[in-house]
Design goal:
Six copies of one chain form a homohexamer. Chain A has 244 residues and is an alpha/beta fold. In chain A, 40% of the residues lie in helices and 15% in strands. Chain A has a single domain (6-196, 229-234), classed as Rossmann fold (3-Layer(aba) Sandwich), CATH 3.40.50.10320. In chain A, β4 (112-115), α5 and β5 (156-159) form a beta-alpha-beta unit. The longest helix of chain A has 20 residues, at 197-216. The mean pLDDT of chain A is 96.
Chain lengths: 244, 244, 244, 244, 244, 244
């Protein structure tokens, strides 16, 4: 456990953390956080069409995807990347995997956690990850699980932006300005050589979210400028001493 | 418009602001805000059963309810109480009333606004107020409405806690610690002589919300103490520079 | 106000009470209730296509529809039919109409009330009626509205079955066995000469709901027989001394 | 009523039809439809911030907005533009306005209709328009409304894309390829001189929707190309002879 | 994989495909499709009360249900019936079963797929089947799953009509006219000797859906006739070149 | 199977049945029911923080929790307490556990069943229990599961009150007056020595629900008194011969 504030991102496949919350990761690294990224799989079977078309073997695909994830993490300033290699399409989220994730959560003691949307009919790995994360969060809070370890508090679980948000029933209630770290996010995206068509797609997502940021912070009547943003949905209520 | 930060609470009936957000009002007054409370009616017909049973006339009921509202506002430290006297059960929310509310919004230029839940089958005055407030907020933002006046930015609209929350589909996503001002809220509630049965009811509400505050801020694993709290639902996303 | 238990059905157009709750009306009349049926309009413009195709005038259409409604009410055993003649497509639900309905509610002092579904994109008269009824129910409960009159208690509001239930978001949570009064409901439906195609349609509805009645009362494993039923959605929770 | 197939778009403010369904309009004009665009207002008060900042009068603002709407309609190939001038922020949707819209619907006899989302807390004019359109559609179907006129059938009501879709609870279930008419939509957008910041915003929307079009038509596994698209939500079920 | 267009129906228990989409199957067979029906189980334990009451053994029940399913498939014109025999009440949907279904999907390469509703508190086999189908659809799309096989495109998943639709939260958005093949559906239903009470029940369902078909295609104002129909809910958006 | 009416409560952890439905249990025991309480686990790991802080071993914690559950059951008058010891945080709900629960259901033949809410992001054991119960209820109804045993009818499944109801999407539709047995519920709660902070919390819950009981039974206009109540949500519709 770090002396710095910490955060934990759980990504079903290796590239999800880049497209969906690369800005949040880079920004919090700059703010002094230690952000841990846990990738449950490399996305080797389902997110690597180009490599399979080229005739690569499973080991080759995984090696290439691993290298991309490591490069992207570096671009974002992430020092702690955990690659669990649980297999994908479908993820094998068994009791052993659960223990691994609970151990990571307890080790990191995150101030906040982040993962996928609750519903995704296109990609059940995504929504299964969220269920899996909620279960692990509960276990990590239990005093009787591995007694003697430090138990987890009550960190927020943010849900990052899925593809085709409306189909997933995902509704952002927090917008984060990522303008200061945009170059890092773009660089991280460009590490994903098999998904070049997504570089511009997610650049546009960030531009649209910046528009929403300005709308909701009063941009039309004099609000701050913001060129790139990310949106998140919260699961749990927030506790405050003053209303914003 | 005040040099202080400002806030605006819109209450369908005179006592709603006391039960539902008296803590938030008193706390923000202590934090240096100028909080304006706009009561659309005195709750003279629908919230004053005891007075009617005693045989009071409409004018008498209104005078008594006005005095109670003024006393409660004073107990909460509110200097700006606006009593619109639009009639209740039902509220008469016509174009003239709309102009009045838009004028108040523009005059106050609130940092945040607060009103009722979106659905209330028990009390349609409550949900009609929320629709009315959203419409007025929109008008206040329009550059072409009374050109020359300062237009409204994009303040949050908080929805305070209704009676029987689950029936109203109201889900709190913000808990506010009101422990420091609890005595003021209790004193304000005790100004409502016709609704004595609600004093303890809303005291218990505040105690339950304090429990929720602690749960969501990590209370079981070492969170801060909190004895009284209020819950609110937000309508609009929030814009931040760091995730909490 | 009757010495018998009473009930109040509010029907947007003259025939709605027949198709949607004719069984409940006839059954409760037989159980000793006095059921009041209030029709806000005759359905003269929107539910009378055949008459208009025949070249009837507005007055003729209204007279015919009035006669049908009276005949149907008689077939169901209803002694108290109130025809408000507020116009249809759209209903004109103004302050005067509201006063009329509140007066009826207070006069009847219903043990339960019944009206349309909350949402109906095909027929906005239906959903507007439900909003109108909720508002009137609230006013009828207010001690300060026409002080001296007996105020309303807290009767359930049942929502009867709309056409195309799934499109209306209507979900029945109560099934009522109307087998004993089926002949009366069928007879009442056959009073509606302009909508012959609906006689068999709503007969089938009753048969399907009887199947659901049996499923939910344990019909597959020995439940009671039931040949015709009606379904209703409740708005308010029920209060009991024993769980069923 | 045209011999061509017809369609009817109802736009709360003058520019909404451009951003939200300009592609659908231009495409159906090319497909041989006669598309009627009815603008309930010019958006003179609420959507014209720049003009008010420049000190224009109400009449000047309306004239400028009218000219922009006419130019945009021409760019899209629309011959039938109806400007109802009902006032905006808020729209005054009274009985007279309702009669106007019903007359237009009956005159046009649209194969399909299109309007705003059902919920919009940022802009109540938008959601009020949709309620107003549903009510007018119902009236237009009534044989007893202006007897002798041709009554309306049962056209679909499409809901075009609002700003900040997730906040509006809007979920697209139809994507339309507008690549062939993209230049017309862009040209129409460029007629809106007071909202230059939206030109690129809605260009990006169309690019993102093209991505979704390809995903849902099998784009990753060999689907057709599509560079620009628009999304719509349907209110009513569709009736088919073969499943797609 | 057929040269004809193909479709794939996944049925939890042997008879589900008959009641819920027998018309769609027969119709598409007549339209030149090759429809594959995959039954995950025979419904031997949970849908065969009569046989168990008669004292049949498990093997006998399965043999009888198999024969009924084969007869029904033949009546509908289905050449490709796959009986997976995974056990029922509950279905055993393990990794092996998943591989079987993915193989079928890839083998069939369906233009569209069809299965149960998303929620069914009465019958968890039904909703578990839908989750299982969504997961298998995702795997079948993955280039890295059994590389070298033809991957799946993006077929629609239709959800056929459950029993007690409102309790399942199922909302039909497509109605299909099955009048031309009604005799085949009725004949298929009559192959189900253990569930005679459902023959008329599902005949009435088809008649009611025909009424809805006509309502939504403009039947009251001159739409086409339709005597029997089936309703379906779609999961994914549709992609079109013209709005209907 | 008892000659008395029976009921079955399924509790994820040993103490849940006390806080959430101790009143319903005690009341129905007094009404002559035999209520069976099945605890899937002791809540040994997740609900026993104090014991772990004191350094107890797993066996000690389980023994203490077992004793508390037995004492609470006795305080409530429950004679049939079944402790399944499936482990907690997470519950291990495998096929063997399922068989155990189905056997209990068939043995008890409950008139009604009761368990947790459908959604609980704080505690996935709770929502997993509800899924597990629905599946077991279905199996218990299947004639082919352990043929020869008496199959289950169609009992209601009540969902008792979760912590932080609004976050769970739980909406009570039945309130039960537990005033006559309040002392028993309080005594049962006081058996839970490790969760003293919850004694007053759930006392306040009962007081608030009593207020809701009175509101919904007409308390403001003369309804019965009620000092303590519990709320429940139903899953299935109810079947009646008269509307309440």
């Amino acid at each position: 456990m770090s002396a710095k504030p910490t955060a934990l991102v759980i990504s079903a496949h290796a590239a999800d953390f880049v497209w969906r919350c690369g800005g949040a990761i880079a920004l919090h690294q700059e703010l002094g956080y230690e952000v841990t990224v846990a990738c449950l799989s490399f996305g080797e079977r389902g997110d690597s069409a180009r490599l399979w078309k080229e005739g690569k073997s499973l080991d080759e695909v995984k090696a290439i995807r691993r290298a991309e994830a490591e490069a992207a993490a570096e671009a974002l300033g992430v020092g702690d990347l955990r690659l669990l290699d649980l297999g994908d399409y479908p993820l094998r989220l068994d009791a052993g995997a659960q223990d691994q994730l609970v151990d990571i959560i307890r080790d990191v003691q995150p101030k906040w956690m982040m993962s996928h949307s609750r519903w995704d009919p296109y990609n059940t790995d995504h929504m299964n990850t969220t269920s899996f994360v909620l279960e692990a969060r509960m276990i990590a809070q239990a005093w009787g699980h591995n007694p003697g370890e430090k138990v987890l508090g009550a960190p927020q679980l943010y849900l990052f932006e899925p593809h085709q948000t409306e189909q997933m029933g995902w509704k952002p209630d927090v917008f984060l300005d990522i303008t200061p770290v945009w170059d890092k996010k773009r660089a991280a995206m460009e590490c994903m050589n098999g998904q070049i068509h997504l570089w511009d797609y997610y650049t546009r997502v960030a531009q649209q979210r910046a528009n929403h940021f300005k709308r909701n912070s009063g941009g039309q009547a004099g609000g701050r400028d913001c060129k790139y943003a990310e949106g998140f949905e919260t699961i749990f209520p927030v506790c405050v001493d003053e209303l914003a």
